[in-house]
Amino acid sequence: MRRRFQRLRDAGTVAAAVALLGAALAAPTAQAAGTQGEQLTDLVNPFIGTENEGNTFPGATAPFGMVQLSPDTGHDTGYDYSDTHIRGFSLIHLSGVGCRLGGDLPVLPTVGEVVETDYTKYEAEFSHDTEEASPGYYKVGLKNGIDAELTATSRTGVQRYTFPATGKANVLLNAGQSLHKTVSSKVEVLDNRTVRTAITGRGFCQDTQPYTVYTITRFDRPFSTYGTWDGSAVTDGSKTGRGGAYVRFDTAKDRTVEATTALSYVDARGAKANLRSEGGRPFEQVRRSAQMAWESRLGAVRVRGGSDGLRRTFYSSLYRSFLAPNIGSDVDSRYLGWDGRIHRAKGYGYYQNWSLWDTYRSQNQLLSLLAPREARDMAISVIKIDEASGWLPKWGYGPVETNIMTGDPVTPFLTHAYQQGLLKGYEEQTYRALKKNADGVPPIGSPATGREANKDYIAGGFVPHHKPRPHPKPGDSDYGHGASATLEYALSDATLAAMARDLGHRADAERYAARAQNYRKIFDGSTRFFRPRDASGAFTGSSDPAKSEGFHEGTAWQYQWLVPQDIKGVIGLIGGKQPANDRLDSFFAYDQLVKDPAKTAREVWVNGPYDYYNADKYNPQNEPDLIAPYTYLSTGQPWKTTDVVHAALTLFTDTPTGMTGNDDLGTMSSWMVLSSIGIFPVQPGYPTWGLSTPVFDRVDLTLDRRYYAGGSLTVTAPGTSADHRYIQSARVDGSPYGRTYLTTDDLRDMRSLSFTVGTEPSAWGTKGQDGPPPLH
Asked: Which of 167, 385, 634, 715 has the least CB density, counted as fewest CB within 10 Å?
């Protein structure tokens, strides 16, 4: 598989990848994934997204595991396929983040004397010809003659190094270097098999509060000698140091060394308990267990049809969707809360790492569908953050707030969990936390920014745009993105209004529903686009929507449809369905798209992984536009949703460049999975799922009977392909179905969703009431 990737790159990545996906969509087969002895893990390619700023990692981890043991090559977020040297195999990586994070305790095997302590100098050269990866396993042959293999449990990373025959086989444990800023580190050699570290770091896109990770590494046999270092000074025989440690083995006869490293965010006791519980097993046994865990997780979805390339791309996306959030509690259920104190999770598992601005649009919904038990624990974990710190998170890493991105993403995250039935017993507590967040602003003494601009927003109905604005706390400022922050606040108000109404808080419901209409306050009737306003209420910045300011990672063109609570209202502001459809067609370059979908996706839509501004076209690489293709469901032209979605799917390929921008903890991957199945959450924070044509003949979903009465859902679209992609009719459990959306209540009770597809658009879903309803 890895040699095939190299040929694709050498032959011209774009042309080859487009041809691969085009063939995948056009030539379905009859084989079902996971049948006839096929392992679903064999279909996963962890190298997808490791080039061109997808920022994924190829290393070993368990589903939602605390540990992600993976190579670091010098890229900001860990691994880049274009690099040729490995600095170490470190414990923590978040899939697809856009800034430095993790990389704690890079470990590297070497031979000979230890003369360098900077991993940029002792890094080892490698080639992709000797590299392979699959879920829960990674292997590489280093050019220093050492083979390195990695696997993992939930809280440990397991390494196996095969050295040349030598008396000086070393393992370097570098506590003082990582992907982020290391504030302090300590390393201790406890005995002739065990090394312990404590590493305090900080940083992400901007500075953050410091946090500490504790590790303990146990080798499968005694090392012959050891030493530690501070700075560049190596002291042989020393048991303590601030920079790192080396341990040495005689591999003249026994060339293999195995080691297990346990991690804890709580304390050294927690790391020791995690090692005792999950360590002590041979490498191959751990590898098999990791593979079985992934096989079970991937087995929730079985697809039939599509080429091998499409199925590999699909299951690789499904794999990445299950990488985060991550287990944050130790085996004894202790975890470090956001108040800096140790807590114990009772009756739930504690999770951490909350890229909410990204994940609230697709990944959280996929987990609620396919992993509701974990999704419930994740939602409860977010409530526990409020319990401990007094405020809900915005972008949380480990036990600290980073305040990265803007708006109020935690509200649609939690209201979705509520709508899915995942917060039984926590409804009123959740509502109180959300109400406090929606109506207040965290005090200066709190690390959280929350709805930073709430005072102005509540008073005037919009977030004033300031440039630049001194920000008293690390992270992003809502005032620096006044227009998009207004849209995000209004969306969150709409979802909270629905929850308040359900719980009987009628006055609150009316108040939040009224605030949900605040998107209208930044609509400029002269341009018929959203624009930021300054503190006086005057529109500010360029009147050209492609050159607008005040929108976080986007333009007015790309944010114009981020009003899922009231798309009909937006259509009315634009001038009606025909003007709205004309604008959508321009936005998606629809005439070009119909003629050449893949070329339009790559040459018209995509301008670069971080090129968010000065554009009037759809950006499939970034979160603000994830819902946009489904807007046609509300304008009476649902077939165009399929056209746009299927064109965007060609950007996902079975290659290192096969990711559309940062994956952002599974956000883009989950978009691919749900859009491929034909069911997508078009109203974040609310139980509405839009429909489009699946790319597979058949998809079988195994669902949790505690939440879904039938325990399964089968989606069929016989003959679906690039030429046969238009829905002619739909049936739910055998009965005709004309709407372009389903609700969660529908999904809970139904067993089958079947589409008849054809070569031309039909009248299906085009009636006035067929589209998704407004939330108020």
From this structure: 167
One domain for residues 642 and 697: yes
Cβ neighbours for 320, distance < 8 A, ≥ 6 positions apart: 48, 49, 56, 95, 96, 663, 666, 669
What is the model's pLDDT at position 372?
98
Picking from 403, 448, 398, the residue whose alpha carbon sits closest to that of residue 211 is 398
Nearest Cα residue to 170 out of 247, 269, 277 = 247
The overall average pLDDT reported for the chain is 94
321 and 291 housed in the same domain? no
Q: What is the pLDDT of residue 28?
A: 39
Instruction: Please give the residue range of the domain that contains residue 234.
Output: 44-297
Query: Is 20 part of a structural domain of the chain?
Result: no
- Quick check: helix, strand or coil at residue 51? coil
Identify the CATH number of the domain in which residue 48 sits: 2.70.98.10
pLDDT in tens, 455-512: 999 999 999 998 766 667 889 999 999 999 999 999 999 999 999 999 999 999 999 9
Counted domains in the chain = 2
340 vs 720: CA distance, rounded Å: 53
Name 530's Cβ contacts closer than 8 Å, sequence gap at least 6.
Answer: 483, 487, 519, 522, 523, 524, 551, 556, 559, 560
| Mean pLDDT of all residues in 8-15 | 36
Output the pLDDT for position 35.
57
Handedness of CA 7, 12, 14, 15 (dihedral sign): negative
Q: Are residues 688 and 719 in the same domain?
A: yes
What is the pLDDT, as a whole number, of residue 611?
86
- Domain annotation covers residue 109: yes
- Of the candidates 323, 309, 291, which has an alpha carbon nearest to the alpha carbon of residue 676? 309
Q: How do residues 233-243 score in pLDDT, each as one tens digit?
A: 999 999 999 99
Same domain? 221 vs 283? yes
Same domain, 293 and 321: no
Phi and psi at residue 212, to the nearest 5°:
-125, 135
**Alpha carbon distance 35, 756 (integer Å):** 25
Query: Are 252 and 323 members of one domain?
Result: no
Side-chain half-sphere exposure of 498, counting CA atoms within 13 A = 25
What predicted TM-score, i.e. pTM, was given to this entire model?
0.95
CB 293 within 8 A of CB 63: yes
* Longest CA span, the chain: 80
Q: Which CATH number belongs to the domain containing residue 389 in this structure? A: 3.30.2080.10
